[in-house]
Amino acid sequence: MHFVNTFTGICKYCVTPKNGLTHAQRMDALYRDRAGDFDATRDRFQPGRKELFEMLPIREGGVWVDLGAGTAANFEFLGDRLSTLAKVYLIEPAASLRAIAYERITRLGWRNAELIDGDALSFDSAIGAADVVTMSYSLAMIVPWLAALEQAERLLRPGGVIGVVEYHASSKHSWLTRRLSIWCHQLWEVFPDPEHLPCLHTRFAVQHFRESAIPTLIPGLQFPYFVFIGTKPLEEQSR
To answer: How many domains are there within the chain?
Structure first.
């Protein structure tokens, strides 16, 4: 039954029209008819989230910004640590996913969580310096992704931590795997870029980094992904 639900969810994902002039419109078109299946399928096809959220340091009274929060399910990985934060900003452009996130926040009583209709580029950075900024399978969905990463960097205080888990085009895998992976993800408005990792390594001091790949139902086809945790330098360096 789990396999059937997963396969059905993926089929909905692939055939859903992704029309829209803005990023928010495209994201909502993508998820509108499958928001209810999102959490059921993402454990299989979006690994590394639990690893990332459990490893990220939490400063009592700190501020956490999640760019592309989806249904906010990732924050369940924090357990009781979530309540020690002063504020959690959950930024999500897709209304269908925000609806599920709102239900989760209300049901679990996350009083310090604020759900925001927006994306990484439109979010008002006047909140002050964040202690943690996360992007869980959202970096590759934002065009231009570099502007989103620069925004994440601006949001962080010096010494603050960024956490990213994302699909990518890895040179460790065969040309066929890379091309098929990129093509399949583009059907879902996901654009893995080989420059994601070099950019992260250049801008942040690496605290944790792991590469892996997701096996698929097609023999020989894998979806490469990475988990990255880094800190913003205490002093800005010219690049």
So the answer is: 1
Q: What angle do CA 132, 136, 139 make, to 5 degrees?
A: 100
Q: How far apart are CA 133 and CA 90, in angstroms?
A: 10
CA dist., res. 221 & res. 224, Å (int):
10
**For 73-125, how does the pLDDT look when each residue is reduced to its tens digit (9 = 90+)?**
999 999 999 999 999 999 999 998 999 999 999 999 999 999 999 988 888 76
Check if the beta carbon of residue 69 is closer than 8 Å to that of residue 95. Answer: no
d(CA 69, CA 191): 18
Return the structure tokens found at 9: 């969810």
Q: What is the Cα–Cα distance from 110 to 74, expressed in whole angstroms?
A: 13
pLDDT band at 34 (very low <50, low <70, confident <90, very high): low
Residue type at 222?
Q
Quote the DSSP letter at residue 209: E
Residue 238 lies in a domain: no
Residue 170 lies in a domain: yes
Query: Could you give the residue ranges of the DSSP H alpha helices within the chain?
Result: 2-15, 23-31, 35-45, 49-55, 95-108, 145-155, 175-186, 196-203
Task: With CA atoms as reference, report the closest residue to 73 among 112, 111, 102, 33.
Answer: 102
Q: What is the pTM of this model?
A: 0.81
Q: CATH no. for residue 223?
A: 3.40.50.150
Question: What domain range is 170 assigned to?
Answer: 47-231
Q: Which two tokens stand for residue 143?
A: 């065009």
- Number of residues written out for the chain: 239
Decide if 70 is inside a domain. yes
